[in-house]
Amino acid sequence: MKNKRRQPRVVVIGGGTGLPVILRGLHNKNVDITAVVTVADDGGSSGILRNYINVVPPGDIRNVLVALSDLPQLELDVFQYRFESSDKFLAGHAIGNLIIAALSEMHSGIFGAVQELSQMMNIQGHVYPVTNEPLVLNAEFKDGTTLSGESEITAAHKPIERVWVTPSDDQDGHQPAAVPEVIEAIMNADQIVIGPGSLFTSILPNLMIENVGRAVCQTKAEVIYICNIMTQKGETDNLSDADHVRILNRHLGHNFVNTILVNTEPVPEDYMDFQRWNELSKPVRHDFQGLRKQDVCVISTNFLKLQDNGAFHDSEKVVEELMNRLQQSHD
């Protein structure tokens, strides 16, 4: 009798709203999922909790847990519930953020907290905060000035030259490092998926941790970058898809992106509500020649999902393409 083939191992790296979209699509596929989540967010409820109790910001982790959980919808709705502004002390806080913060104190760190919560929430796969400590995102802009803090960097609305991360408690000058489980997952993966998400504030904060960047460059897995559909104000204005890859490669000093998924379906301008989605600017322009010069395999098709007067990735179409890539690599 033949041995049952093991599930393909897929590692998805990112943060923000793009990561859960892909994870929800992968959730019911026959794959072993590991989500590696950024810990450099300092806005909203996450930022307030971080400032009060120096916990790793829990917001992105909360959304990833929900995307991979098999709990009934009511329990997930409670976990996601955000207190109203009239509640004063609890205003704006999501219950899940408070639970993650409490478990982090109980376990002396976010990593153990998330592993316990993963069991409680019946997570299918693995959720790994990229480090066990809060990180600060730093940026140097093209005009030579620098800023620290994700929300400060985004609010500056200036072209970014490069980003790097430092521990929030940087008194001893140590370099941040990912937990061993993250590195092991990357090195043993069949496929690494990066994005979609904010290039400088959701994706690069993970890759700028030295042992993560090194592992992503050394892994034998296919590294697939899901390029954003729209540019982001103050982050990626006027950048082409080839520019996105060029920035990723330059930050790691290596052409590590093997494949890019590019949406070619036009976004109807009269459909977009740019007041509601005020961080978005215009569709990412295509530079297929620039991508080929970087030895990137280009998969360009209709990945667009129009929803709530915004432009998003259709998770079913994206995941179908990811499954095709896995199938081809296993044949």
UniProtKB/TrEMBL annotation:
This is Putative gluconeogenesis factor. Keywords: Cytoplasm. GO terms for biological process: regulation of cell shape. One of its GO terms (cellular component) is cytoplasm. It holds the Pfam family CofD. It is found in: Cytoplasm. One of its GO terms (molecular function) is LPPG:FO 2-phospho-L-lactate transferase activity. Belongs to the gluconeogenesis factor family. Its main location: cytoplasm. Coiled coil: none annotated. It comes from the Bacteria. Required for morphogenesis under gluconeogenic growth conditions.
